[in-house]
Backbone:
């Protein structure tokens, strides 16, 4: 059985990799560290898409985001998608200074807000964090996340860096059944690391939803940062899961590295699968001896 060691990368589909990379660099402090043309039968089989793709790799702190531009374009990000819809999947970017990060975002432009009224400070029962959700120019959801000064998790206690954005803490995905999805990720080697119940006016403004009631389950691989958070909304309208193709803009992928897989990945086996709600996963495994 595969045992996941870490989330090695977050992979986002885009229709214009250079344009989107420019936004991530200007607005959030990412830097480009790689460019690769993905071609050949193995890649087409893995992605389920004919034709190749162009991949730009960006880095923020110790985390990587791949922007994958397919030669054959798919569907744009769905209009009017809500935070509770089952296609929802965001990246949570930890910031050392929410005011500075938010001002940098305002100056960059090109994005659209999910959160109403600027950054929101959530109640202690929801972690006491300050957060702001928005969509990048392609529609991918993102979150700026600031932990309380006296309650930052160990990876985020060092707030030094070239800018206010430090790295990616987790990817949050909307799910229909928390128990079912928890069992799925536990079978891959993740363990439950936290649970919370998020609701109230602050959560409503954060999510841009009327009266949200969300059960949140954090699941961590062996290397605990970054991790996955399951968002199971108990109230409100929710669009059903749509099986996205990899070249659809809303198709984000978690690249999961199994224990024993070579870091460079050159001698590794890659396979794709879907979680119970259709979220894309890419598993990087060692070659069998």
Residues:
């Amino acid at each position: 059985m595969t045992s996941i060691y870490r989330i090695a990368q977050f992979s986002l589909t885009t229709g214009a990799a250079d344009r989107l990379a420019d936004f991530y660099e200007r607005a959030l402090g990412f830097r480009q560290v790689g460019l690769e043309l993905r071609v050949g039968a193995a890649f087409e089989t893995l992605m389920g898409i004919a034709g190749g793709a162009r991949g730009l790799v960006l880095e923020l702190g110790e985390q990587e985001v791949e922007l994958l531009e397919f030669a054959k374009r798919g569907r744009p990000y769905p209009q009017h998608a809500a935070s509770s819809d089952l296609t929802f999947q965001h990246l949570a970017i930890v910031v050392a200074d929410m005011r500075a990060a938010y001002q940098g975002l305002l100056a960059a432009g090109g994005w659209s807000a999910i959160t109403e009224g600027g950054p929101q400070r959530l109640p202690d029962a929801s972690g006491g964090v300050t957060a702001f959700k928005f969509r990048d120019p392609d529609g991918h959801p993102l979150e700026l996340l600031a932990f309380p000064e006296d309650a930052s998790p160990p990876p985020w206690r060092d707030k030094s860096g070239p800018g206010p954005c430090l790295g990616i803490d987790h990817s949050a995905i909307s799910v229909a059944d928390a128990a079912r999805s928890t069992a799925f990720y536990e079978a891959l080697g993740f363990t439950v690391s936290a649970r919370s119940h998020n609701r109230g006016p602050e959560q409503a403004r954060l999510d841009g939803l009327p009266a949200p009631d969300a059960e949140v389950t954090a699941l961590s691989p062996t290397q605990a940062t970054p991790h996955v958070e399951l968002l199971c909304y108990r109230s409100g309208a929710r669009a059903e899961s749509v099986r996205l193709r990899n070249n659809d803009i809303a198709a984000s992928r978690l690249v999961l590295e199994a224990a024993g897989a070579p870091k460079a990945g050159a001698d590794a086996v890659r396979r794709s699968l879907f979680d119970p709600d259709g979220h894309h996963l890419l598993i990087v495994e060692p070659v069998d001896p």
User: Anything to note?
Assistant: Residues 114 and 134 are 5 Å apart (CA to CA). The two ends are 16 Å apart (CA to CA).
